[in-house]
Amino acid sequence: MPTVTGNFGTKATINLPEGQPSGQFVVSTVSEGEGATVAKGDWVTVNYTAKDWTTGKDLASSYDSGGKPQLYQAGNGQLVPAFDQSVLGKKVGSRLLVVAPPAAGFGSQGSSALNVGKDDTVVFVLDLMQSVPQDSTLSGTMTEPPPTAPQVKDNGKAAPTITIPAGQAPPTELQTYVLIKGDGKEVKAGQQLVVQYTGVTWADGKQFDSSWNHGGAQALQVGTGSLIKGWDQGLVGQTVGSRVELVVPPSLGYGDQASGSIPANSTLVFVIDILEAV
């Protein structure tokens, strides 16, 4: 069985034993954390170190320069079983040693991105940094937006109620209101965020989308143009743990094009809980 040296939160050294791997998928806890236990569907953030047992070569690590943690939903089949299954039932703050034969790793295809050959056994050390359940939300005293802005009523583990001010013309520029100020890290362009969100149209106050209606917390990339401009501009620079209200004019939303149930030239109002940034 391989052994590990180094501490949680730093790049591990993986020491391989003599002989060939057994072909068994093995997950062992090197050190146990004291955080929440990971359940299926939780958004987990994992740092990793890896070594190809077949070749003896060290592989890319999230601790390397330019590397970043892996964010994914546990147990949902998004990644190979070495990541997908190994974290289930484990506690945040734990360091895991994972021996992944081809069936639990990269199979007969290998991975050109990681320089793993076909049918290679790979050893991973996973540091379980964070876990965000799909029904996560923020709590705390909210700062009310000004009377001319949409008002927000918290509904716990359900979509908030957003009320458009009567007789008020929509703004022509992006309006950002921090309803709860989080004390986490600052959101940077290019990061993946885990968020709960709800959106309504200013014109009639009708909800057109909410993460609460399709599985809970969602992951998306901010600041790269994959979202509407209002989100990119309004969320970069905020902090994890914040609840943000964005009033997005058409020029920073969908413009003169309809999108689903959203009419063309719509001003949009979002309430967004920023739960994690990776």
From TrEMBL:
<comment type="similarity">
    <text>Belongs to the FKBP-type PPIase family.</text>
</comment>
<dbReference type="InterPro" id="IPR001179">
    <property type="entry name" value="PPIase_FKBP_dom"/>
</dbReference>
<dbReference type="GO" id="GO:0016853">
    <property type="term" value="F:isomerase activity"/>
</dbReference>
<dbReference type="InterPro" id="IPR046357">
    <property type="entry name" value="PPIase_dom_sf"/>
</dbReference>
<feature type="region of interest" description="Disordered">
    <location>
        <begin position="135"/>
        <end position="156"/>
    </location>
</feature>
<feature type="domain" description="PPIase FKBP-type">
    <location>
        <begin position="190"/>
        <end position="278"/>
    </location>
</feature>
<keyword id="KW-0697">Rotamase</keyword>
<keyword id="KW-0413">Isomerase</keyword>
<protein>
    <recommendedName>
        <fullName>Peptidyl-prolyl cis-trans isomerase</fullName>
        <ecNumber>5.2.1.8</ecNumber>
    </recommendedName>
</protein>
<feature type="domain" description="PPIase FKBP-type">
    <location>
        <begin position="41"/>
        <end position="132"/>
    </location>
</feature>
<dbReference type="Pfam" id="PF00254">
    <property type="entry name" value="FKBP_C"/>
</dbReference>
